[in-house]
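2.7 Reproducibility. Because tokenized structures are sensitive to small changes in the input, we list the exact sequence used for Reverse gyrase, including any N-terminal residues retained from the expression construct. No trimming or masking was applied before prediction.
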Amino acid sequence: MIQSSIEFFKNLPAKQCTECGEHIQEQHECYGSKCETCLQITR
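Resulting structure tokens (single pass, no recycling of outputs):
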């Protein structure tokens, strides 16, 4: 059975930062691999 693309993205695990291991608060299918803290982004 072929899985729909919507179901595929819903089932992706939460992303983790490659530096500290914290969960990244963004879409799981995006290309970023570091959290805001490790990127030193200030808002």
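Helices lie at 5-10, 36-39.
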